[in-house]
Amino acid sequence: MGFLAWSMARLGWGASDGQRPIQALRFTVLDTELTGLDARRDDIISIGALHMQGPRIELGGAFQALVKPTATLDGRTVVIHGITPTELEAMPGIGAVLASFRDYTADTVLVGHCLSLDLAFLNRDARRLKLGPFRNAAVDTLSLYGWLRRRSLDHPAFALELTAPTLFDLAEAFEISVEAAHSAMGDAYVTAQLFQRFLPWLQQAGVTDLAGLRRVGNPRHQQANLAAQDGHTHF
Predict the structure, then answer these.
(1) Residues of 92-116 as b/e, b for ≥16 C-beta within 10 angstroms?
(2) Which of 8, 84, 170, 212 is most buried, judged by most C-beta within 10 A?
C-alpha cells in the first residue's frame, strides 16, 4: 500500500476501511453545549462523549469536560443547559480540552445528533489552534433516522410528522429514558442508545459496513434542517 492510500485508510477514507463491518467499528458518540449558535462569536462550554464497539455501549471511560469560554454566556442558554459562568471560571480553555478530546476520538467514527453543528465548532477551534480539522468518518443520527423513515418501516416512531425531530423527540418515540437532558454527557448517552436502536434496521436494509453507514448517515444531509431551526435542538 502506498503512503497516500495508507493515509486515507487511517483517516477513514480508504476502500479497505470502508468495507469494515459495523460490528468491528469503534465509535465516539458525542454532544456539545454552546454559548449560542453563531460559530463566529459563540463557544463550546461542555463536551460529553462515550465509546461504542459495534452496537455495544461502553459505560466506562466516558469523556466529560467543562470549558471556559471567551464568549459571554447567554442567559437564555443558561436556562436550558444549566451551566453558569461561575462554574466555568476555573475550567481550562478549549485548547487543553480539545487536545485531550482529539486523543479520545483517535481511530473512531464520530456519531452525533445534528452532528454538523458540533463539528462546525470543534473544527473552528481546531483550526484556530493549528491542530487541523477532525478527519474522522462521521455519522449523524438525524440523517440515519430520515433515511430509515423514507423506507416506511413498520414502527410508530418512523411516522412522526416532524421535519427535523430533536434528540428528545426521538428518545420519546423510541422509549429511551432521558435522565440528564441538555447536558453534554447525558445527551451523548441518549444519542448512543438511539444509534444502537437503528443498527438492526440498518443491517436489515443492507447497511453493514462503514461505507454504507457514511452514505446514509452523512451529517451534511442535515445542514438545511439545521438552518431552518429557531434554536439549538440539543443544548
Answers:
(1) eebeebbeebbebbeebbbbbbbbb
(2) 170
Among the listed residues 194, 31, 188, the one whose alpha carbon sits nearest the alpha carbon of residue 117: 31
Q: 35, 71 in Cβ contact below 8 A?
A: yes
φ and ψ of 27, to 5 deg? -115, 150
Contacts of residue 235, defined as CB under 8 A and 6 or more positions apart, other chains included, come to 33, 34, 77, 80, 81, 182
- pTM to 2 decimal places: 0.86
Q: Are 27 and 167 in contact (CB under 8 A)?
A: no
Domains of the chain, with CATH numbers? 24-224 (3.30.420.10)
Q: Are strands 109-112 and 56-66 parallel, antiparallel or unpaired?
A: unpaired
* pLDDT value at residue 233: 37
Please choose, from the candidates 117, 112, 95, the residue with its C-alpha nearest in 3D space to the C-alpha of residue 36: 117
User: 4-18, 31-45, 131-145, 152-166: which has the minimum mean pLDDT?
Assistant: 4-18
